[in-house]
């Protein structure tokens, strides 16, 4: 069961869709033109029901099969990234400061390709729910769609998603059971010192000294407090302070991220952060306040559904079922908290990495992904 012949037949049409999307990227929840393009195509395919503005700009299309059955959800994200494209391609972004650097144009295209085929053939029972989601890169569009009734209103029982992955062959698949992507939290520390003339540091409480002391002490939290068999990341990614060479600032700000798979690891890191912040700032005569923001939960692949999806992928191409979990994050995690399902990667070949200004989705991968979505639906709803 390699790439479906009919899907291979309209691969050039899929390329046209994908490149149109690539040239017209939209950010976060504001994927209105992208959604309009998706809706236009779904109507042309003969999709039975199309629901718009789910989670601000999300789209849900329903295709009914030949008999009674449950509902399988297939999800693609639509949003781009706020960065400048440097591919130099003819189909490069036409919008300054925005580009599809994570393959969401390809994900949307693969699901549209599956929709075209499924609406033509309807070789399944039950219903396929096509989920086109905004805001994976920032606001958590999956959560917004769920809050707008995605799972409840459409009765979705299982859900599956694909994501482009550079570094493995085009059209090959990769996944793993259990946690495949991490929880992603962010934090900010506001440090209060006492500013003054840089020539008289003895009259000041230097917040930069406090900030660097906290940042250095943070490096010991994972290295010296976490069981070496477990995994966690604590990264300091920002330090802001001062405005002149001859002034000791009164305040400073640190910022960063925490990535974990297990709740107890997250709790330990946060607790140790709070202890370090309090004691280091006090040691230098200042104060500091932590603001900790819980982000996406871990993306957890359900065992049975991942084995099922892996069998489908293996029949189409090849699959690594023991892929290395990533400390990156993915808001598909919210959907997998609600219903069983699985998240898989589809290979993009030897290309620049995701979020790189020279990344581009390989159009040769789209027929593999569309065939995967189709066979998941047809097999689950047989």
Strand order of the largest sheet: 1-2-4-3-5-16-6-15
Q: How many DSSP H or I helices? A: 11
Percent range of helical residues: 25-40%
Mean pLDDT: 98
SS class: alpha/beta
Q: What is the distance, rounded to the nearest whole angstrom, between the alpha carbons of the first and last residues? A: 16 Å
Chain oligomer state: single chain
Instruction: Describe the global form.
Output: elongated
- What is the β-strand count? 16
Which strand-content bin applies to the residues?
Answer: 25-35%
Largest sheet: 8 strands, mixed
> How do the helices and strands follow one another from N- to C-terminus?
HHHEEEHEHHEEEEEHEEEHEEHEHEH
Unreliable stretches covering 5 or more consecutive residues: none
Give the radius of gyration: 24 Å
Description:
With 382 residues, this protein is of the alpha/beta class. Helices cover 36% and strands 26% of the residues. It is built from 11 helices and 16 strands. The strands form 4 sheets. It has an 8-stranded mixed β-sheet with strand order 1-2-4-3-5-16-6-15, sandwiched between helices. A 4-stranded antiparallel β-sheet has the order 10-12-8-13, covered by helices on one side. Strands 7-14 form a two-stranded antiparallel ribbon. Helix 3 packs parallel to helix 4, helix 7 (207-225) packs antiparallel against helix 8 and helix 9 (303-316) packs across helix 11. The longest helix has 21 residues, at 263-283. The radius of gyration is 24 Å and the shape is elongated. 47% of the residues are buried.
């Amino acid at each position: 069961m390699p790439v479906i012949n009919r899907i291979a037949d309209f691969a050039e049409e899929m390329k046209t869709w994908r490149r149109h999307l690539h040239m017209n990227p939209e950010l976060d929840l504001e994927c209105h033109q992208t959604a309009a393009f998706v809706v236009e195509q779904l109507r042309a395919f003969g999709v039975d029901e199309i629901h718009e503005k789910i989670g601000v700009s999300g789209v849900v299309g329903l295709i009914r099969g030949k008999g009674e059955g449950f509902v399988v959800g297939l999800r693609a994200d639509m949003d781009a990234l706020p960065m400048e494209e440097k591919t130099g391609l003819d189909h490069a972004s036409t919008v300054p400061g925005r580009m599809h650097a994570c393959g969401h144009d390809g994900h949307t295209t693969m699901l549209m390709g599956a929709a075209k085929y499924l609406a033509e053939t309807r070789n399944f029972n039950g219903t396929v729910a096509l989920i086109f989601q905004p805001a994976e890169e920032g606001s958590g569009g999956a959560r917004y769609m769920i809050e707008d009734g995605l799972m409840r209103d459409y009765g979705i029982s299982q859900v599956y998603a694909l994501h482009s992955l550079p570094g493995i062959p085009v059209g090959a698949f990769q996944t793993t059971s259990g946690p495949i992507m991490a929880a992603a939290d962010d934090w900010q520390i506001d440090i209060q010192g006492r500013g003054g003339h840089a020539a008289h540091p003895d009259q000041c409480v230097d917040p930069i000294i406090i900030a660097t002391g906290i940042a250095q002490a943070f490096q010991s939290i994972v290295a010296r407090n976490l069981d070496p068999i477990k995994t966690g990341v604590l990264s300091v990614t920002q330090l802001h302070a001062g405005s002149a060479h001859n002034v000791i600032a009164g305040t400073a700000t640190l910022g960063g991220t925490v990535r974990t798979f297990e709740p107890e690891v997250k709790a330990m890191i946060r607790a140790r952060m709070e202890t370090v912040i309090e004691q280091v700032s006090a040691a230098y005569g200042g104060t500091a306040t932590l603001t900790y923001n819980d982000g996406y939960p871990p993306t957890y692949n359900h065992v049975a559904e991942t084995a099922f999806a892996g069998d489908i992928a293996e029949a189409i191409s090849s699959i690594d079922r023991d892929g290395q979990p990533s400390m990156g994050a993915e808001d598909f995690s919210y959907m997998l908290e609600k219903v069983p399902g699985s998240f898989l990667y589809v290979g993009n070949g030897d290309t620049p990495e995701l979020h790189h200004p020279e990344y581009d989705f390989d159009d040769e991968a789209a027929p593999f992904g569309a065939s995967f979505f189709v066979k998941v639906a047809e097999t689950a709803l047989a």
